Amino acid sequence: MNASIQSINMPKWGMSMSEGKLVKWLVSEGDAIKPGQEIMEVETDKITNVVEAQDAGILRRRVAAEDETLPVGALLAVLADASVADSEIDQYVDANRVVAVDADGETSLISKIQVDGRTVNIMDSGGESDKAFLLIHGFGGDLNNWLFNFEELAKHERTIAIDLPGHGQSSKDVGDGAAVNLIAAVDGVIDALGLKAVHFVGHSMGGMVAALAVIGRPAVAGSLTLLAPAGFTTPVNEAYLASFIAADDRKEMKRVLSDLFAEPSVVTRDMVNDVLQYKRIDGVNAALGLLASNALKAPEAGGLAAQLSGLGCPVRIFWGAEDKVIPPPQSDAVYAAFDISVIDGKGHMLHMEAASDLNAAILQQLATD
Amino acid sequence: MPKKTFKQAITEAHFLEMRRDPRVIVMGEDVAGGQGASGEADAWGGSEGATKGLYTEFGPSRVLDTPLTESAFIGAAVGAATQGLRPVADLMFFDFIGVCFDQLYNQAAKFRYMFGGKAVTPVVVRAMIGAGFRAAAQHSQCLYPIVTHIPGLKVVIPSNPYDAKGLLIQAIRDDDPVIFLEHKLLYGVTGEVPDDSYTVPFGEANVLREGKDVTIVALGLMVQVAMDAAKELDTLGIKATVIDPRTTSPLDLETIVESVEETGHLVIVDESSPRCNIATDIAAQVADQAFHALRGPIKMVTPPHTPVPFSPVLEDLYIPRAEHVVTAVQATVPAKKKGN
């Protein structure tokens, strides 16, 4: 097999994705492709997103057709230098067209850890390394929010995503709803897995939890990446929290969720159904109410920003310029003190809306060891 | 998320609600029967074993065997509900509704209304429906139109394990009488079901897929038939929306009408006898509310107007199949070029 031939395959975006539909090609055969270039749009039951090239090369073959539904891992396109013969491309396509579908492969990544009587659900890409990415979702989210990030990060380092108490498949008990209850779960996971160098990545409320976990035990912190963190300087939009908790039908839930994105049309029927199903689990709305009024209450003067300065590990912060849930900080002093990137045209769900930029930035944190 | 069968989802809903609320009791024929019988450590848990294990955990005071007298035990369940218990009565085959109908349609359904809202009747009547079980004409009917007709009764027809658990928990927590109907051929169907307790609200249809050419409404076992038909229609270039109302009373007409306003075409798949059934009801209401959105006739896919045959060959012919749905769609949606 010619080493200079690179494939583009059907990605796996989250636990439940087993197949995807190629909606639209964005490049033509013969185009010179750069890494990061958008190659095609793929639609799943839950979401539509673009697939980007990992490698450079000429797009020699569009293997899949528009409107075709193919399993995860299926060969979609072939990149190679102009020097590779067409016959070699043909051979490559023939040899790689069929993929073995491992229907339940992902379920083995899921495990449950007992922390102080609570069950904490995690997705762990595995390995024995005591160095790992630890991904912490936001208010009302779960570990599936990292669907565009988990697999990419896990290619480079052990990656663990956690369901915070009150969320996902973890226990719905959040105690009094103060942040300590969430931090205890994170600490419990770190201890149970014996992690020694944790690269924390936290979104929104999960960003606040990650920051407080690092402040509490700086010795294990390899780095801290915060995406639109709660409590940094500004409080979370209270109207958003209240309407998220109150929403109990599809229309209302869809309206609330569209506030999370700069482009509201990305909110699909399945995304709305998933959140409604979660909210209809006994105890969830009560837990969210406690978290909203305790963990997410307006930050003390200075907020997390005051506590994070002078921390030993590298801290990078990302914000969507159009974030309606936690708008970017306004104070110049904060921008002077921290490495903050504000991304134009993106909303609160940065890790979904700007996945490949963020994945690259998060991977750079590994180099800081 | 863990995978469970439809039957396991039903059993789990009982366990969770009986642990949560001591007022919940189960009664019916052979729900407690069988304990100590040869090879039986536990009770049978009803004719299909859907309540198996309850007797061991909750004992004879909350899992009650009844005589073979539906009129008596459905009446007792309704009475117990008015006095503060929350009974779940297993009628076994819904075809037996005839002998206990007064207790439901003229008693339970009327109490809240006739006592000025001061009386509540939180009773659930579970029963099996549907053909395909080789159980002959008296044990194979889909009689839900009869109860859907009665104001004051809520009627639930789950089509998958997730909905079965959430709808049954909602039914047990509901303060009105609920008729909860399980298609016999769904018990072995598997799907993702969370371990936690959760509810699925009544009157909220499930939109299983969205397509712009035709709206297909289906209930119970027919939901999978409609989904199979939609896949077949994909290959013909016709994109179907499939809607499962989940409850026929209350009925989420809004979701159906909104979809018809987009597609202009409606096909309803209903396993009950064709006259005065849910298909005719939805067809009439959509014609009344959204006639001007329709760009073709409303088509109904139902069995013929006959008793369910005992002959396996005829019984299989009796039940609507995906090919019937495809034909009905083609009869209302103009032929399309692929990719339109």
Automatic annotation (TrEMBL), chain A:
Keywords on record: Lipoyl, Pyruvate, Transferase
Chain ranges of the Lipoyl-binding domain: 5-80
Keyword Transferase: yes
Record-linked SUPFAM superfamilies: alpha/beta-Hydrolases (SSF53474), Single hybrid motif (SSF51230)
Domain of life: Bacteria
Xref: InterPro entries: 2-oxoA_DH_lipoyl-BS, AB_hydrolase_1, AB_hydrolase_fold, Biotin_lipoyl, Single_hybrid_motif
Record GO terms (molecular function): transferase activity
Cofactor: (R)-lipoate
Protein name: Pyruvate dehydrogenase E2 component (Dihydrolipoamide acetyltransferase)
Species whose genome carries this gene: Dongia mobilis
From TrEMBL, chain B:
Transketolase-like pyrimidine-binding domain sequence ranges: 4-189
Keyword DNA-binding among record annotations: no
Highest taxon listed in the record's lineage: Bacteria
PANTHER family, A to Z: ACETOIN:2,6-DICHLOROPHENOLINDOPHENOL OXIDOREDUCTASE SUBUNIT BETA (PTHR43257:SF3), PYRUVATE DEHYDROGENASE E1 COMPONENT BETA SUBUNIT (PTHR43257)
InterPro entries named among the record's database cross-references: THDP-binding, Transketo_C/PFOR_II, Transketolase-like_Pyr-bd, Transketolase_C
KW Oxidoreductase (keyword) present: yes
Native species: Dongia mobilis
Name used for this protein in its record: Pyruvate dehydrogenase E1 component beta subunit
